[in-house]
Amino acid sequence: MLDDAxxxxxxxxxxxxxxxxxxxxxxxxxxxxxxxxxxxxxxGRMKQYRGGHNETWGGVTIxxxxxxxxxxxxxxxxxxxxxPGTRLRYWKYPTLSPxxxxxxxxxxxxxxxxxxxxxxxxxxxxxxAATIAAARAWQAARKFTPTNAFxxxxxxxxxxxxxxxxxxRGSSDESVYRLQRALNAAGAGRFRAxxxxxxxxxxxxxSYQSRLRIAVSxxxxxxxxxxxxxxx
Length: 232
Fold this sequence. Notes:
Blueprint: H1 2-8, E1 19-22, E2 44-57, E3 60-71, H2 104-116, H3 129-141, H4 152-160, H5 174-185, H6 199-212, H7 222-229
Helix pairs in contact: 2-3, 4-5, 4-7, 5-6
């Protein structure tokens, strides 16, 4: 009846700004068969898509329902504030060797190794002796066998380095950038790191978790971070 009033008698009733939909169809979205897609969009829907069920987190089992929220302006990326002027976001991170020409990806390594405390030179993009020495020192500290090449596993671990914050779809903070870059480096995704945990990030994370044979939750748990930070 509420949607009939919206569609058939526009302007005659004071309608709510937002609606809550109870539709236990198992689809994590705000779509339903009884309200057209043009109603209360964007930013005006919340849907309970799954009723009460048991879930276990941190060894504790609770009975909860599942809801998908699309309210307000949505998650907004926060300024990262790392490595001013140095690009960190790429779709892929190729292996670098001593023969590599200067490149912006080397600048990313130099910046991140500076944060890790093993590099103190110029951020100039040159994969030179100083950069290689810093990379080897970081590799040794992370229990990798030191090598002059900077490979996929090294990229994955370096990009993921930091606090193992549990994040999921809708999250928006510094750790989302790290997760998105690390998933790209690991070959689980190919997308732009935006700082917002969106559907593409969740799909890539689920793919990664499936490949590593850990719980496929679409949530970046400490276990997931552990795998990424080990370069797996």
